[in-house]
Amino acid sequence: MFFHKKVPEAAAGVADFGYLPSDACYLDAACQTLRPQCVIDAEHEYYTSFNACGGRVKYRWGEIVDAKVLEARKRILAYAGKSAREYAVVFTLNTSYGINLVLHQLPEEYRRIVTSDIEHNSVFLPSMTWAKKRNAERIVLKRTADGSLPAVSAHLKNSVVLVNSMSNIDGRKLRNMRELADAAHNAGGILLVDAAQGFAHDPERLRETDFDVAFGSGHKIYGPSIGFFVIRRSLLERMNPFFIGGGTVSDVEENEFTLLRSDDEPHAPLEVGLQNWGGIIGLSTALEWMKQRHDLRERTEACSKQLFDGLRALPRVHLLNESPSSICTFHTDGIDAHRLALFLSQQNIMCRSGYFCCHSYLKHQRGLPPLVRVSVSYSTTPDDITRFLGALKKILSAF
């Protein structure tokens, strides 16, 4: 099997990803990061050593799961810079699921939703359905070149502000996120942040922001495919859960039920059914790994600059980025993006082509053709960038 081939660490570039074949060049981290070996091992350990349900059983395996899940919640809160007294962690399927879960169970007091033009469909579509369902106003604001969101108090009054902290198109960051949160709260609104990219590449801004909910996906921060969000307890307590089932209630009668609400398990009303225990444990391991391998961040930033400078220097390449980022997006003269991605794939260079779930902005507002997106992570080496740029230059010279 492709990803089980063992190679020397020097050939793989990073010991934590030593399972990579020497010829693999993975540049699609904005979709999902590769998993370090310790994360793979942690999830495997759950399935082979203590494969039990959390929160439901009294035998030893279940106790181990409960302890590790609690540890995961604490690590996520610490990573987000929030206290357990004010915030709680809820696990979901992914970022898209979490956004829908929260948005459609918000209190009725919010009558307007504000979003931006460069949102992923995970934000853009739920904002549409929420506005239609509530017969509410929906405002789409234009982000500035540096990623900030200009907003006036009239837009924010009693509003749900739902925006990304970092674009999956070109890596633009919500540079005024802290000020936006304060302005929304002063106007009686709330700030919901799609932090799927931000948790990986801009956690400091999240830590300093008084957000109400921040959504993330484990598969974008070196963990398994699982979602989570960090939510303010005071908002969670005011929500009106209707998407409920096993694990969300403390008692059920023939025609009545009582939601499970407690200081110890504030997440319970929103965690429906059996959870992905192995994924939660793997995510917890990924967060600890990221904490220990902060040395790789400097190299990732260097690779991002190398990528940006290299793309900008190539003729016939139209780069959307205005500054270096871990995510670079472009199109070329004469070669369709999907064909270009296939040509690169033939050399085992893996990157994304298309509209990256941002159809409204890229296809209809900007009128752009399908694009190629290259994204780097802790598993990326300078040799990967050199190899990609060399292959791209060779392909362009042939057409």
Average pLDDT rating: 94
Largest sheet: 7 strands, mixed
| Percent strand | 15-25%
Query: Distance between the terminal alpha carbons, to the nearest Å?
Result: 34 Å
Shape: globular
SSE order? HEHHEHEHEHEHEHHEEHEEHHEEHEEHEH
Strand order of the largest sheet: 2-8-7-6-5-3-4
Query: Which CATH architecture of the largest domain is right?
Result: 3-Layer(aba) Sandwich
Which residues form runs of ≥5 with pLDDT under 50?
Answer: 1-13
Report what the structure shows:
The structure is a single chain. The chain has 399 residues and is an alpha/beta fold. 39% of the residues lie in helices and 17% in strands. It folds into two domains: 138 residues, Alpha-Beta Complex (Aspartate Aminotransferase, domain 1), CATH 3.90.1150; 250 residues, Type I PLP-dependent aspartate aminotransferase-like (Major domain) (Aspartate Aminotransferase, domain 2, 3-Layer(aba) Sandwich), CATH 3.40.640. The protein has 15 helices and 15 strands. The strands form four sheets. A seven-stranded mixed β-sheet has the order 2-8-7-6-5-3-4, with helices on both faces. Strands 11-12-15-14 form a four-stranded antiparallel β-sheet, with helices on one face. α2 runs antiparallel to α11, α3 packs across α11 and α12 packs parallel to α15. It is globular. The N terminus is likely disordered.
